[in-house]
Structures are given as structure tokens and as C-alpha cells.
């Protein structure tokens, strides 16, 4: 005889279900993120450029008369003063020309004296009828012609003297005299075919203390600068008030700071840029014309901005944003605007308020509307192994925090 299966009471089934429910994993704790509180501040409004150096004064020394170059009277690459003799051109022809013109002047002066005496005598004889009016008129005309000839001769003599002086080529300005372009014995001229009608170039003199630094800024960057400076615009016309720091081609900083010296009032139609120029002292002649240098130009201060660590700024199709943590420990999105950086931080100009708590690390586990646990973010010092390890550990902890409760539940 078969036995009937035993029935389990309903009360026992309920106890089994309750026991199973009591073993479910508890809800995971909120993820941990590192945050920093921001405050509005004022930061330097700086821009970086590449510029090219040029001499403060530069003058080409050319031959102003034709002849054979006799000698060079200066040391190449040495300092010369204004008016110092640099070259000498053969003066023989110009001295002879001057002597000839002086002789013609002396002859015409003698003729003038004779015509003057004749004219005065005839004017005295006219009232007594000893000479006719025609004679007086002729003598007066001869006197005036002789006087005009003397004036012309004096101008010719002056020109001859100037030409003779030009055989001694002197420095038009003080500065560093460069290498000679023509050697002694060569024929130089004031209008030769090879120079296109200009005098033969003999050398160049440059003043290199102080020096100019020429650079450009795009019109778009200039507009951004004017918008960035709260409470005013960047006034490039205030020459001598905008500071300029220079770095040499090898990256070494140049000890003497310069100032903005000139800004153009037009935009170059082909490049869309505005020409700027700085003035910097060069007492040790470390700066040379034609050299390229890096410039950091201080355009003033940028007020009421926020410095946000670069890793905290996120971007999507709508623009830049950061994740903030409110008083209720919930994550919220803040759209921000930024156009520049300073060191390892972005300069945020719009979208934040004083005291906002921004998530720096752990943004990958933070979601809008979700709760998070916050710890203070510490900026890792450059080159510090301990700081780098601490930052890595904090990031690893933030990434692993959501998975930790699940592991605990599985263990149970």
C-alpha cells in the first residue's frame, strides 16, 4: 500500500521566504569623490607671443659722391659716435672743382663791382644831361645781371664744398658700425647701375640699446582681451604701462623687463592681426637684431574669475561644464564659460558662484541627481612621488567604491 506524500504547512513556507529575504545585500553606499570649493579672485591677464628683435636706430651709410674709396677709418663691429669719420673717397676731382668755382666767383664779383660803379656814375650824370636815360637803364641792367651772376656762383661754390665734404663719409648716428661692404680701391658712386640709382652701400650702423621687439596679436584675441578685463578695456595706447617679459631663444629668461611701446591702429587685411612693438633695454648686448624671442605680455588683471583644475572641466556637444555637489550631497551640472588657462587650472569667467563645491576626481562615478560622499581634493605637487601616489590611491578608491558593497553582499 503506497503512502501519501507529506504536505508542508503554509506557515513553514512563509518562514522560508522571510529567511531568504533577510539575506539580501544592503544598498551600496554613495561613491566617494574629491572636491574643491572655489572662490572668485583676480588673476593676471597675460598672453604669450613670439617676436623678432630689431635695432632702435638703424642707418645705412652710403656713398653720396662718386670716386675711388681710399680707406676705411673705423674698426668693424666697434662703437662709433655721430660725425665720426668712417670712409674717405678720393677728393682730388672735387677739390679742383671747388677751386674752379671759386675762381669764377672772384671773376664775377669783380665784374659786378665794375658794373656797380658805372651804374652809380651814370645815375649822377643823368640830371645834368651828360648821359641819356637809355645809358642809365643799360648800366642798371648790367649791374643787376652781375649781381645775379655772383649769387649763382656763390651757390655753385657751396655745392662744390658740399661735394668735397661728402668725400669724407661720417657716421650719421652713434651706434655699432657693421662690416664694410666695399674695400679700399673700389669705385663707389652716388648713382650706380647695380644699386638702382642709390648710393653704394658702405656699411650699416645700428643702436642696439635699447631694442625693439616686434610681434602681432590677432584681432580676435584682442577682442577677447578687452572682454576679459572687467571694469575696462585693454588700452594698448597707454605706452609704457604694459609690462613685457622676454625669454631668449634657448628658453632662458632675460633679466630686463620691457614695456609696450607701440600699437598699430589698423588691422592687417591679409593676416587679420594688429602690429605691436615692445621696447627693452640691452646694456650687455645679449639681444641682437633679427633674433626671435618669446614674450609674455601683462595686459593687467582679470577680475571676478574662478580657477578650476583642468581635470574637473568636462565638455560635450553643448559646451563646457563641471559637476558640483550641493548641500544635500547630490550632484548637479553647471555649464561654464572659459577661454584661457593659468598653470594647471582653467580660468572660468561665467557659470560659477563663490563657495561652489566642484568634483575634481571621481567624475566618472558621479551622476546628476545622485548622492556622493566628498573628501577634500589635494593638488599633487609636480614631481612629488608621495603626492602622485596619494592622488592615484584616491582615484582608485573613488572608482572601486561602487563595487565594494556588491562584493560584501556576495561574501555574505
TrEMBL record:
Residues 304-364 form the Multidrug resistance protein MdtA-like C-terminal permuted SH3 domain. It is found in: Cell envelope. The keyword Signal applies. Residues 59-192 form the Multidrug resistance protein MdtA-like barrel-sandwich hybrid domain. Residues 1-25 form the signal peptide. The keyword Signal applies. Residues 102-167 form the Multidrug resistance protein MdtA-like alpha-helical hairpin domain. Residues 381-412 are annotated as: Disordered. Residues 210-299 form the Multidrug resistance protein MdtA-like beta-barrel domain. Keywords: Signal. Belongs to the membrane fusion protein (MFP) (TC 8.A.1) family. This is Efflux RND transporter periplasmic adaptor subunit. It comes from Paraburkholderia bengalensis.
Amino acid at each position: 500500500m503506497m503512502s501519501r506524500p507529506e504536505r508542508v504547512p503554509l506557515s513553514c513556507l512563509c518562514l522560508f521566504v522571510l529567511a531568504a529575504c533577510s539575506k539580501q545585500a544592503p544598498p551600496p553606499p554613495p561613491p566617494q569623490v574629491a572636491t574643491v570649493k572655489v572662490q572668485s579672485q583676480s588673476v593676471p591677464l597675460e598672453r604669450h607671443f613670439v617676436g623678432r628683435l630689431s635695432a632702435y636706430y638703424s642707418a645705412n651709410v652710403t656713398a653720396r659722391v662718386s670716386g675711388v674709396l681710399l680707406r676705411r677709418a673705423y674698426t668693424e663691429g666697434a662703437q662709433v659716435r655721430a660725425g665720426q669719420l668712417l670712409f674717405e673717397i678720393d677728393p682730388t676731382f672735387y677739390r679742383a672743382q671747388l677751386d674752379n668755382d671759386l675762381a669764377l666767383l672772384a671773376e664775377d664779383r669783380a665784374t659786378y663791382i665794375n658794373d656797380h660803379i658805372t651804374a652809380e656814375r651814370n645815375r649822377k650824370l643823368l640830371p645834368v644831361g651828360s648821359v641819356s636815360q637809355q645809358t642809365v637803364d643799360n648800366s642798371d641792367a648790367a649791374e643787376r645781371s652781375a649781381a645775379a651772376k655772383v649769387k649763382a656762383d656763390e651757390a655753385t661754390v657751396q655745392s662744390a664744398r658740399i661735394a668735397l665734404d661728402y668725400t669724407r663719409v661720417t657716421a650719421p648716428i652713434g651706434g655699432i658700425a657693421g662690416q664694410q661692404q666695399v674695400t679700399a680701391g673700389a669705385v663707389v658712386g652716388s648713382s650706380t647701375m647695380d644699386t638702382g640709382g642709390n648710393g653704394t652701400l658702405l656699411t650699416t650702423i645700428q643702436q642696439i640699446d635699447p631694442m625693439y621687439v616686434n610681434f602681432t596679436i590677432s584681432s580676435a584675441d584682442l577682442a577677447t582681451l578687452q572682454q576679459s578685463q572687467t571694469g575696462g578695456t585693454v588700452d594698448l595706447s597707454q605706452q609704457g604701462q604694459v609690462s613685457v617679459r622676454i625669454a631668449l631663444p634657448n628658453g632662458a629668461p632675460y633679466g630686463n623687463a620691457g614695456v609696450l611701446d607701440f600699437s598699430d591702429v589698423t588691422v592687417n587685411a591679409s593676416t587679420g592681426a594688429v602690429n605691436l612693438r615692445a621696447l627693452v633695454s640691452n646694456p650687455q648686448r645679449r639681444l641682437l637684431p633679427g633674433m626671435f624671442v618669446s614674450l609674455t605680455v601683462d595686459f593687467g588683471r582679470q577680475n571676478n574669475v574662478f580657477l578650476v583644475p583642468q581635470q574637473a572641466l568636462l565638455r560635450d556637444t553643448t559646451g563646457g561644464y563641471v559637476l558640483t555637489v550641493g548641500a544635500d550631497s547630490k550632484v548637479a551640472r553647471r555649464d561654464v564659460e572659459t577661454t584661457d588657462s593659468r598653470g594647471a587650472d582653467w580660468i572660468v569667467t561665467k557659470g560659477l558662484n563663490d563657495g561652489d563645491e566642484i568634483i575634481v576626481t571621481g567624475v566618472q562615478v558621479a551622476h546628476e541627481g545622485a548622492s556622493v560622499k566628498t573628501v577634500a581634493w589635494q593638488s599633487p605637487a609636480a614631481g612629488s612621488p608621495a603626492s602622485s601616489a596619494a592622488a592615484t590611491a584616491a582615484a582608485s578608491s573613488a572608482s572601486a567604491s561602487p563595487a565594494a558593497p556588491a562584493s560584501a553582499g556576495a561574501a555574505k
